[in-house]
Design goal:
Shape of chain B: globular
Number of strands of chain B: 6
CATH topology of chain B: Udp-n-acetylmuramoylalanyl-d-glutamate--2,6- Diaminopimelate Ligase, Chain: A, domain 1
CATH class of chain A: Alpha Beta
Helix content of chain B: 25-40%
Strand content of chain B: 15-25%
Strand content of chain A: 25-35%
Order of helices and strands of chain B: HEEHEHEHEHE
Distance between the termini of chain A: 20 Å
Strand order of the largest sheet of chain B: 1-5-4-3-2-6
Number of domains of chain B: 1
Largest sheet of chain A: 5 strands, antiparallel
CATH architecture of chain A: 2-Layer Sandwich
Strand order of the largest sheet of chain A: 1-2-3-5-4
Largest interface: A-B, 25 and 20 residues
Number of helices of chain A: 5
Structural class of chain B: alpha/beta
Radius of gyration of chain A: 15 Å
Shape of chain A: globular
CATH class of chain B: Alpha Beta
Helix content of chain A: 25-40%
Number of helices of chain B: 5
CATH topology of chain A: Heat Shock Protein 90
Oligomer: heterodimer
Number of domains of chain A: 1
CATH superfamily of chain B: HprK N-terminal domain-like
């Protein structure tokens, strides 16, 4: 099953709607709460990053037999130093974002902690593509 | 502890979901940074926060947080209340600051922290 969402960069209050939709779909399919939570966290963090740093983008989600894959693609400014960006607590988010409760430099490390696979391709001036995969437990989707 | 007792302990009021006062609650956490909530919070906690925007409700929804308590006399907007109602999330508030609200709940018997080991 494949899903595609446009993530608006114009309205911060809308950030997270794609993650919310995917959460509902996983719940309706009978996924376990552990799987749902991990997917919700990685996708929401990626959505927030897209809105904060890149003016929005596109989220493509594929639910397979044994995993869920999420590709978050934007045409924002890119990440000049990925190693630095992965450091917990390091952030380039502006003050208005911090006032809204985000931008504390936890996003990428939080995504790494909850995804079974995370790859980030970023070209400065062209954009960033974040690929994440969450595996379903061997005992089954709902385990 | 049931939710209704917790709200009494902090001299709280409901903004929505007051009919769920018999809900059993086992743990709580206080945070103003939603990034920290995403990183550290366990399932089904009561979240105490001084942050007031729709992303608080979105964060609660995504992490299965069923009760949000706004501290320091903060009031959620109508859009937040509508969203919480749709999602079945209880919104409450207290005039107490974060430290005292958490302290009263702890003293009242809500002793389990709502975060994973750090």
């Amino acid at each position: 099953m494949k899903y595609r969402y446009e993530v608006s960069g114009d309205d911060f209050s809308l950030a997270g709607r794609a993650s919310s939709e995917i959460k509902k779909i996983l719940r309706s399919l009978g996924a376990s709460s552990a799987v749902i939570k991990r997917v919700a966290v990685v996708m929401y963090e990626a959505e927030i990053n897209m809105v904060i740093h890149a003016g929005g983008g596109v989220a493509e989600v594929e639910i397979g037999e044994d995993s869920i894959s999420m590709v978050m693609r934007d045409e924002g400014p890119g990440i000049p130093n990925l190693d630095l960006a992965m450091t917990e607590g390091w952030s380039t988010a502006p003050e208005w974002v911090r006032e809204l409760g985000f931008g504390a430099g936890m996003g990428l490390s939080n995504m790494k902690r909850n995804a079974d696979k995370l790859t980030i391709e970023s070209v400065v001036g062209k954009g960033t593509t974040v690929r994440m995969r969450v595996d379903f437990p061997a005992a089954g989707f709902g385990a | 502890m049931i939710l209704g007792d917790a709200i009494k302990l902090i001299d709280g009021v409901y903004f929505c979901g007051g009919e769920k006062a018999s809900l059993e609650i086992r743990s709580a956490c206080g945070a103003d940074l939603m990034s920290d909530v995403m990183a550290f919070v366990k399932d089904e906690v009561v979240l105490l926060t001084g942050l007031v925007n729709t992303q608080v409700i979105r964060t609660a929804e995504l992490l299965d947080i069923r009760v949000v308590v706004f501290v320091r006399g903060k009031h959620p907007g109508a859009d937040m209340v509508d969203m919480a109602n749709d999602l079945g999330i209880v919104l409450a508030g207290t005039r107490l600051p974060m430290f005292l609200a958490c302290g009263r709940l702890y003293e009242g018997g809500l002793r389990e922290g709502g975060t994973r080991p750090i």
